[in-house]
Structures are given as structure tokens and as C-alpha cells.
Design brief:
Largest sheet: none
Oligomer: single chain
Structural class: mainly alpha
Shape: globular
Strand content: under 5%
Number of domains: 2
Radius of gyration: 23 Å
Distance between the termini: 15 Å
Helix content: over 70%
């Protein structure tokens, strides 16, 4: 298990910050590398060696890629391919070995022992990061990193190690060696961290409690109760994941790094295309840069573009988990995007904004049903309950739950929009802004601490990916 929230907030983070700022600048990457491994090793002591192995492999491959890139492209490609094969083999074994053996056993003539391999936390994220390094160096988009400790710091950087955002090497290459910490960046980081903490503890956990309660009574909730439940999950996964990303970006600012934004109010989207420009931006960017464009993107005709989109979204679904529901989820959005781009775009562009928004939210919510249920029979039963309009609208228990959580549902809906950000922008340059930010951080830390003390352990949803 990873650090408990309170232990992280009030022991690990303060100690690391103090050590970091009293440490001479030339030793700060070494310090971060050590504390990163401590952070990861607390929850995954066995798999620290796996991360160190990945670091050594990609550092070595990057060095040889850079050496041969201008002299012998064939040799450079050999080391690039070696990096890709080793990284994807490790990810494939730990994440998909059990899924592959179980799938093969559907064939009547096979009886392969099922492989149940524990999934190292964060392997999907740091594997994509290390792969981006080798590719960026080969393309000449980023300089080779000659210091293995500095490279190890990049791979294992604890603020975003467990659940992203996926930080491409070229985006932080300069910062690794030349960052300068400032008081303004530190205070900005504290505020962003508190926003993320509030999203997770004050909203996501409450929406998760509603969803879990609705799940306990299942098909007896009525069709309206089922919709309330999946809407709660829709809010939970957004505030949980975007909350982690905000906390990671805030922590990055505290240590002098600037990570790219990972979410941009995705639920205000007016199309599925727009939604995926706003949701998990770092993953979408990774697949576009390293899969879609190398496949040919939109440069080889419409049929090939459709195929490229479906390949990318098949891989996007598979990246999220070793289960058929994730594959269906990825292909579902891939087909929607193809349909939108080549069939629905003209209609959508002319439709009123409320129709565009309703259309988007409907298909996004349906997507979260596919995403949540790994058991396909349970998924089917839930879909049936959502669309059984001739039956009971909402059961008594589900109605009581919906009413009791209604204020939080409204808060979640409002917080999903830029309203609060826009209101703050109006006072951001006033003398009251520093006081407001300070009060906000104090209140959030107080409320979140109180809730964390009273709640059971509630990990981030993306820890399992």
C-alpha cells in the first residue's frame, strides 16, 4: 500500500521539502532520486528494482541512440527498438500475462495455467515516460541525458509517479538541469495542490460513497436511480483523477518543475472530440505523438485515417487495463470519434449548444459504464436497469440517497465548470487575492484533514492502472 494520505501530508512531504531546500543545488536531483525510491518502495518494495532496471535500460539505450544517430542510423534504430521491446515486454508481462492466458483458455483445446502477476503501481505511466525519452532522443527532439541520477529523477519523480500526468522527457529536459525554485512558484504550487486535495477528498470521495451505496442495491434502484449512480461515478472519476493531476502539478511547482495541464474542464465539452482534447491530455498527447502520427495520421487518405484512429483507441483502452471492458471502452470512443469526424460534424456544428452538450454528456456517461464494469454480465444488467423506463423510476432507498447527496451533486456539477476559476480571475490582481488564497488553503487543509481522519483508506482510482 502506498503512503497513507495523512502520513504523506504531515510527515513525508514536509521532511522532503525541508531537505530539498537546505540541500545544495547540485545535489538536489540526487536527493529527489533517493526520496522518489523511498516513496515508491514504501508501497512496492519488490518492484523498486524493476523501476531501477527500466531506468538503466533506457539511460543506456538513449546514450547509444545519441552516439549513433548521426553516424549510423541503423545502429541507432537497433537501440531504439531494444528500448521499446524491453519496456513493452515488461509492461506486457506484468499487466497482461494473466489476461492473455485466461483469454487463450477460452479455446477448447488449451489449458494453460493462469498467470496472476501483481501489477506494479504506476508501471503504465513510468513505462510511457521512459519510452518517450528514447524516442525523443532518436528524433532529435530532446538532448541525451548524460547523468544517470538526473535521468532516474525524471523516471521516478514522486509527484506524478503513481498516476500521471505522463510527462514527456522533452517537456522537462531543460528543467531537470536548470530549474530555479521561486517563492511565487512555491505558493502557486501549494494552492494548486490544495485544489487537487479538495477535489479528491471533498468531492470525489463523496461521489464515490454515493456510487458505492447505489451499487449495493444494484438493479433495485430503478432506472432513475441507476442514472443517479452512474452520474455520481462520472463525477467521482473526474475529480479523483484530475485531483491527483492537480496535486502532482502543485508538488512539481514546489520543487521547481512545471508540468503540463492534464485536464481542462472536460464535462463542458460539446463533442466527443472536444472531450478528449480536455480529458487526460497527457495520455492523448502521447498516443498522438508516438502512435497516431507515426502510423500516418491523416496523411494517407480517409480509410487509413479511420484505421489509425481505431488502432490508437484500441491501444488506449488496452492501456487502461487487462480486461475486455477496457478494449470495448476504447473502441467505443474510437468509433464515436470516427463517426463524429466523418458523419456527424456538420450536424453538430449547426445544432444548438444545449443539444451539443447533452449529446456529449450522454455518450460520455455511457462510456463510464463500459469503463467501470469489468464483469460483462454486470455491465449488461446495469445497462438494462438504466433504460428500463417502463419500470420503477427510483426506489425508496435510492431516492433517499439521491436527496441526501443532492447538495454534493450540485457542488460537483458547478465545480466541473470554469465558474470558480473565472470568479477568482476577477480578484486575482487585487490586494485581497493573497489573503483569499491563504484562507482557501487553510480551510481546505482543515476540512480534508478532518475527513481523512474519519474516513477509511480511499486510494486514487488510477492507482490500479
Amino acid at each position: 500500500m502506498v503512503f497513507s494520505s495523512l502520513l504523506f501530508l504531515f510527515l513525508y512531504l514536509p521532511i522532503v521539502l525541508i531537505l530539498y531546500y537546505v540541500c545544495p543545488r547540485r545535489w538536489r536531483n540526487l536527493l529527489l532520486f533517493v526520496v522518489n525510491l523511498v516513496f515508491y518502495g514504501w508501497g512496492e518494495p519488490v518492484y523498486v528494482t524493476l523501476m531501477i532496471f527500466s531506468t538503466i535500460v533506457d539511460y543506456t539505450c538513449g546514450w547509444f541512440i545519441n552516439k549513433y544517430r548521426h553516424k549510423d542510423d541503423r545502429k541507432a534504430k537497433v537501440f531504439l527498438v531494444a528500448s521499446m521491446v524491453i519496456n513493452l515486454s515488461l509492461l506486457g508481462f506484468f499487466k497482461y500475462a494473466g489476461f492473455i492466458t485466461d483469454t487463450l483458455n477460452y479455446l477448447p483445446f488449451l489449458n494453460i495455467p493462469s498467470l496472476k502477476v501483481p501489477l506494479p503501481i504506476g508501471i503504465s505511466f513510468y513505462t510511457f515516460q521512459t519510452m518517450s525519452y528514447s524516442i525523443d532522443v532518436y528524433r532529435g527532439d530532446a538532448p541525451v541525458q548524460k547523468n544517470i541520477i538526473t535521468f532516474g529523477t525524471y523516471v521516478s519523480l514522486f509527484p506524478q509517479l503513481i498516476a500521471g500526468p505522463i510527462v514527456r522527457y522533452k517537456d522537462v529536459a531543460y528543467q531537470l538541469d536548470h530549474r530555479r525554485e521561486t517563492l511565487d512558484d512555491f505558493t502557486k504550487g501549494v494552492c494548486i495542490f490544495c485544489v487537487g486535495l479538495a477535489k479528491k477528498v471533498l468531492i470525489a470521495n463523496q461521489m464515490g460513497a454515493l456510487w458505492d451505496s447505489m451499487q449495493a442495491t444494484g438493479e433495485n434502484n430503478g432506472w432513475l436511480g441507476s442514472w443517479v449512480g452512474i452520474i455520481a461515478y462520472t463525477f467521482q472519476i473526474y475529480f479523483d483523477f484530475s485531483g491527483y493531476s492537480d496535486m502532482a502539478c502543485g508538488l512539481g511547482n514546489m520543487f521547481g518543475f512545471e508540468f503540463l495541464k492534464n485536464f481542462n474542464y472536460p464535462y463542458i465539452s460539446k463533442s466527443i472530440t472536444e472531450f478528449w482534447r480536455r480529458w487526460h491530455i497527457s495520455l492523448g498527447t502521447w498516443f498522438r505523438e508516438y502512435v497516431y502520427i507515426p502510423l500516418g495520421g491523416n496523411r494517407k487518405g480517409v480509410p487509413r485515417q479511420m484505421l489509425n484512429l481505431l488502432i490508437v483507441w484500441f491501444l488506449t483502452g488496452l492501456w487502461h487495463g487487462a480486461s475486455f471492458n477496457f478494449i470495448f471502452w476504447g473502441l467505443y470512443f474510437g468509433l464515436l470519434l470516427v463517426l463524429e469526424k466523418f458523419v456527424l460534424k456538420k450536424w453538430l456544428d449547426k445544432a444548438p449548444a444545449v443539444i451539443q452538450h447533452t449529446y456529449s454528456l450522454f455518450f460520455i456517461i455511457i462510456g463510464w459504464v463500459l469503463f467501470y464494469f469489468t464483469d460483462l454480465s454486470q455491465m449488461g444488467a446495469f445497462f438494462t436497469s438504466m433504460f428500463s423506463f417502463g419500470g420503477t423510476a427510483i426506489s425508496h432507498n435510492a431516492g433517499v440517497l439521491a436527496i441526501s447527496y443532492l447538495p454534493m451533486l450540485i457542488v460537483a456539477a458547478v465545480a466541473s465548470t470554469p465558474l470558480a476559476t473565472n470568479l477568482y480571475k476577477k480578484v486575482a490582481d487585487t490586494k485581497a487575492a493573497p489573503l483569499l488564497k491563504t484562507l482557501f488553503c487553510i480551510v481546505v487543509l482543515g476540512l480534508c484533514t478532518a475527513l481523512l481522519v474519519s474516513q477509511s483508506y480511499n486510494p486514487f482510482l488510477y492507482f490500479r492502472f
